[in-house]
Amino acid sequence: MKIFRLYVVGFIFGTLFLAGCNNTAEPEETGSTLKQQLEEANPVTNMKENNGTNKAIKNGVDTVLKSISILDQEVNARADSAKIQEIGKEISSSWDTIEKQVEDQYPDWYERIEKNLYPLIGESGNPVKNVEKIKQFSKATKADLQSFMEEVNR
């Protein structure tokens, strides 16, 4: 009989314990609210996070600009179709690493940059290259990215 009572008490406490562990909606909501309150109360933390994101954006834009400069050199030198296509893929890959951050933080700049960037990438991937279009899109994209960097540096 004592063993039976021990099992019943253990079962009740176990059930109460598991029921308490199963309630996940309230702690998550409280946690996110607490996080928001901490962020609002501590703007230095927000600034550090933004600076980290801006640093990643700056590094990514620098990489894209360097790749575009290499593309310009290739187009001006000998216009090797395979090399141009390879550089175009590199530009696309470099942009992809920061694209979401730019889109989230600077939506207007994102649209402006992509108006020339994607045609540049597309033209560099065409089997028959239009060197003049590549030069035009390259120049416009570099100008947009440099203006964007000035905005980010403010």
Describe this structure in words.
The chain has 154 residues and is mainly alpha-helical. Helices cover 91% and strands 0% of the residues. It has six helices and no strands. The protein has helices at residues 2-22, 25-41, 43-77, 81-105, 107-125, 131-153. Helix 3 packs antiparallel against helix 4 (81-105), helix 3 (43-77) packs antiparallel against helix 6 and helix 5 packs antiparallel against helix 6 (131-153). The longest helix is centred in the middle third of the chain and has 35 residues, at 43-77. It is elongated, with a radius of gyration of 27 Å.
How do the strands and helices of this protein lay out in sequence?
Layout lengths: L1 H21 L2 H17 L1 H35 L3 H25 L1 H19 L5 H23 L1
Helix pairs in contact: 3-4, 3-6, 4-5, 5-6
Summarize the structure.
The protein is mainly α and 154 residues long.
* Structure class: mainly alpha
Distance between the termini: 78 Å
What count of helical segments does DSSP give?
6
Tell me roughly what share of residues is in helical segments: over 70%
Low-confidence stretches: 26-31, 41-49
Strand content: under 5%
Structure summary, number of beta strands? 0
Written as H for each helix and E for each strand, in order along the chain, the element string is HHHHHH
The largest pleated sheet is described as: none
Descriptive labels:
6 helices; mainly alpha
